[in-house]
Amino acid sequence: MIPSPTNPVVVLVPSGSLGAGVRPDEVRYGIDQGAQVIATDAGSTDSGAAYLAKGISKNNRGAVKRDLTILMRAAAEARIPIVVGTCGQAGGDLNLEWTRDIVVEVAGELNIRPKIALLHSELTRETVKARNAAGRVRPLPPMGPLDDGTVDACDHIVAAMGPEPFIAALEQGADIVLGGRTTDTAVIACFPLMKGAGAAASWHAGKISECGAQCTVKTIDASGVLLRIGTDCFEVEPLATANKCTPHSVSEHMLYENSDPFRLIEPGGVLDVTDAQYEQVDPRVVRVAGAVWEPRPYTMKLEGASSGRFQTIMLVGIQDPIVLNDLDAFHDRMMRVLNDRVRATIGEAAGDFHISLRLYGWNAVSGEKVPEGTPAPREVGVLFVATAASQEMATQIAKACNPPFFHMYMPAHPEMPSYGFAFTPADIERGPVYEFRLNHVVECDRPDELVRTEWIDLKLEEAA
Amino acid sequence: MATVQEVCSVVRSKNAGPYWVTFDLFFKGPEEFERYAQHPALGPETFARLYGADPAMVKHYPVPSLNMIKISYARTSPQGGEVERDMHRGQQYVRLLPVELN
Q1: Exposed site from A127, A309, A441, A450, fewest CB < 10 Å?
Q2: Contact yes or no for A365 and B91 at CB 8 A
Q3: Segment A204-218, tens digit of pLDDT
Q4: DSSP symbols for chain B
């Protein structure tokens, strides 16, 4: 039996990601249980590089504003701080500023005057190249050493912060800390670490709760969890009183979106949960102990996003049985016809273009041949994707392909088929291809040396 | 003869950061875990064949307390790249389900 945490620090994690939908009744429950801080992540690399490359949010502005309104009202009434990591999906300066503007707007509407800290962790290309030249940037598998060309290709570069800049801002009296790119765990671990909770317990609690109620067993739809973090252990409880945590639901979350289920690398250390124990201490609450925090020289993980070549797409639906009965032949014939058509109509000017056809309803997700004997589907959607050096060229390629994409005969066709376009115009400019370019860490002498803290004190602005 | 689908209660796949894909295979119970967790058909060669993974970049972690194994491999094409078909890699597990564990 794990002894209960002594003088636990109580952390309210309202949801897995700001803007996903926090619930006022859950937040109320957590505050009533003595929450000392509201901590939430607001982003991830998971949805791709576009959000960092463009500096935009994945979430709708209204959804983020709604969540912030609920949280800021509750926190102001309870006089507890709010900490947010990876603002605006990617945590770049533009993503952070987008979130800042919403927070300031909500503060005005609620008639509250919080002191707000903005933690910028976006780096210039020059900073990254200088650090690299000084031998302070290391690749992570599967990447090799970093070269300047890769850095120059990035539109934006961020370094993932640990808890220290959050702690510094809280110690200087921040009511709301808005972080640029932050590890999911650090934003939850920062407050308990500041209050003297155990390092392993704080980090482990951070990992378990980073996706909010995902570590719970849901009988009703729910968003958040409450953490009580002590010196050697922590407890986790769903914020929805109808739901529960079980040792299985909690320990299983350690696996989520991790390549290694036992060791989690963070700035300044590694969390090792090999010997962790998970114990049901009440029908809804699980107590966790036994993780180990191994301090390491401080590193921050770099993320960089670039925009590459451009794509234009078209979509048709097909129910024609002649096509459906021989889809692989249709695909191969169409590829040949379209590539020949581009070479014949645009020629050299098309450059190193690329055409891809994805047969939704057949094999679009894998792109691989389906097993022999697979029955014909009732219909397929065929997505055409042209990739070229410019948006204009990608669109010209799509336009050149339009007639055969619309009408291509199969040998059994008695007359010209017309496949079902969904839109007019048929070609849709999709914009550039966005990719992550960095998988490296930068070594730091101090946790805050690459972080810039900016203050907005609405109290002072009011006085002025 | 059993397939992955038959001996597991849950199989899932997902990104683990932009450069790794991770599979979680939860066996139906300790017996299935004991019998199949180290099965060669769940080794690097299968991931090379199904997903084009570099066998040297396939990691295999048994988690006995959960009767599961985690298998992770380095992505072979960039997330969101020109030929992306599954941004979050959440559909990749399906091709593992019929793999036979003799």
Answers
A1: A127
A2: yes
A3: 999 999 999 999 999
A4: -EEHHHHEEEEEEEESSTTEEEEEEEESSHHHHHHHTT-GGGSHHHHHHHH---GGGEEEEEEGGGTEEEEEEE-SS-TT-TT-S-TT-TTGGGGGTT-EE-
CA atoms within 13 A on the CB side of A294: 9
CB atoms within 10 A of CB A376: 14
pLDDT in tens, A358-411: 999 999 999 999 999 999 999 999 999 999 999 999 999 999 999 999 999 999
Q: What is the DSSP letter of A3?
A: P
- Please provide residue A432's backbone torsions phi and psi, each rounded to the nearest 5 degrees: -75, 165
Indicate the SS3 state at residue A459.
Answer: helix
Place of tokens 């990992």: A207
DSSP assignment of A279-342: EEEETTEEEEE--EEEE---EEEEEEEEEEEEEEEEEEEE--HHHHTTHHHHHHHHHHHHHHHH
Say whether the ipTM exceeds 0.90. Answer: yes
For A435, the closest of B17, B70, B80 (CB atoms) is B80
Pairing of strands A176-179, A115-120: parallel
H or E segment to which residue A174 belongs: none
CA-based nearest residue to A202, from A167, A245, A173: A167
Structure tokens belonging to residue A45: 């690399």
Report residue A57 as tokens. 């949010």
Whole-number Å distance between alpha carbons of B8 and B98: 11
CB B81 within 8 A of CB B46: no
Each residue of A68-120: pLDDT tens digit?
999 999 999 999 999 999 999 999 999 999 999 999 999 999 999 999 999 99
* Rounded Cα–Cα distance for residues A436 and A154 (Å): 8
Four-residue CA torsion sign, B59, B62, B65, B67 = positive
Closest-CA distance, B20 to chain A, in angstroms, reads 7
Q: What is the pTM of this model?
A: 0.95
The pLDDT score that the predictor gives to residue B100 is 97
Measure CA of the first residue to CA of the last residue in chain B; give whole Å.
Answer: 5
- Residues of A with CB below 8 A from B82's CB? 308-309, 311, 354, 356, 387, 433
Q: Name which of B59, B63, B80 is nearest A259 (Cβ-Cβ).
A: B59
User: What sign does the dihedral A143-A144-A148-A153 (CA atoms) show?
Assistant: negative
**Which mean pLDDT values do the consecutive 10-residue runs of chain B (102 residues) have?**
96 95 97 97 97 96 95 92 94 97 91
Token pair recorded at residue B57: 């970049």
